[in-house]
Amino acid sequence: xxxxxxxxxALAAAAALLTGCSGGAAAPADSAAGDAATAGAGFPRTxxxxxxxxxxxxxxxxxxSTSPSITGSLLAIDAPLAATAAAMVSPMTDEQGFxxxxxxxxxxxxxxxAYGNLTVDLDAIDAFEPDLIIGSANGGDATSDAYEQxxxxxxxxxLDYSSITWQELTTELGEITGLEEEATERIAEYDNWVAxxxxxxxxxxxxxxxxxxxxxxxxWAFTEDSPQAELLSSLGFTYEPVAEEFRADGQGGRGVxxxxxxxxxxxxxxxxxxxxxxMNGGDxxxxxxxxxxxxxxxxxxxxxxxxxxxxxxxxxxxxxKQTVELLVNxxxx
Length: 333
Known about the structure:
Elements lengths: L7 H10 L14 H8 L5 E5 L2 E5 L6 E3 L2 H9 L4 E5 L14 H9 L3 E4 L6 H6 L4 E5 L10 H7 L2 E4 L6 H12 L2 H19 L9 E6 L5 E4 L4 H8 L21 E4 L4 H4 L5 E5 L6 H6 L8 H4 L3 E5 L7 H15 L2
Parallel strand pairs: 3-4, 3-6, 4-5, 6-7, 8-11, 11-12
Antiparallel strand pairs: 1-2, 8-9, 9-10
């Protein structure tokens, strides 16, 4: 996350993927998937999703994910994933384009690359003979334009992960795949673990803001309902959103407020502690604190700027745990 974080094309892709940062809205309560789960029904089941309704005739045994942003949550519930789309290679991924937080898990389970660089390859998907395709309806990994062709290969469900937390996404995926119990157990295990970790932390001066620093282009500050803010709050941090009058219009995506470089110091004046997300690796703290326009910002002046790691840009079960571990290591009592 250099003064220019990553090449423009990679930054654009990251911006699109960031549309999943908001955690404000829950999955539709009246969805057919929810009804099926509540009734303890099995398959076939009909799933309502962003592109319509899809009937899944039997419990899926070979799933292909067309969304790297969803893949981690599928892995977390032990879904029978055969292959996944891969993102462009960057410091947020391994050499295959798998996000670093779940790349080792995918490798251990033999998950293959369906196609790379978020460039949909229908023939490649078909070759994996999936009985279910799960993907995104929005963001940089969206496959809405190919929905009809994907549906000819296998039942296809496209989700809006931008409006829900990773926990809500995990629950929704459990309902789609018949792994409701696994999803519930995974979330409960995480919540119990986070409560234990919170007791180990002595927070620095509050309040706190987390952001992506983009050098001359300014910063993307995470909103108070973003997964990043919710994670910090769960550990005892008091989250401070950007002052509303300094938010700029732009394409940062849901879950972030855009600050121009000129407005960053004033817009962040309420934050006594700042976390930067290292989207491009390197030393994001040094880059942020070296900006002369930020020299008088309280967290900078008080030497309270810290990294939140690369993995925290896209939160799922795996990256959330890694981010919590990073914070415990930094602020352990």
